[in-house]
């Protein structure tokens, strides 16, 4: 069931930047940890980045140094800052958030297209 609202996707030229948001504001649950996944055309869904409950972050090798995952507890929102975007980053991006109780929720997906 979709409980997280994603925004921030769009069309950007190579080398550009986008910031994706994944908001649980107004919901009855609180995000404690989360992940960003993506599915590119002709490819399987892949993990892009994650943040643990303790704040540790991990990234897929291909996005290291370019993407940053973060969490704003006050806003109950996950973010993915994407810099120096490449055409191969083109995909539908999905957020996945976990609550302290162990429940998991998905965003609806947002399209990121990197093209000149």
Question: What does this molecule look like?
Answer:
0% of the residues lie in helices and 54% in strands. A hairpin with a 5-residue loop joins strand 5 (46-51) and strand 6. The chain is an all-beta fold and 116 residues long.
Strand content: over 45%
Detail the poorly predicted runs: none
| Proportion of helical residues | under 10%
* Rg value: 13 Å
Show the helix and strand layout.
Elements (H helix, E strand, L loop, with lengths): L1 E6 L2 E3 L5 E6 L7 E9 L6 E6 L5 E3 L7 E6 L4 E6 L8 E9 L4 E4 L2 E5 L2
Parallel strand pairs: 1-10, 2-11
Antiparallel strand pairs: 1-3, 3-8, 4-5, 4-9, 5-6, 7-8, 9-10, 9-11
Gist?
The chain has 116 residues and is an all-beta fold. It is 0% helix and 54% strand.
Which key phrases capture this entry?
54% strand; 116 residues; single chain; mainly beta
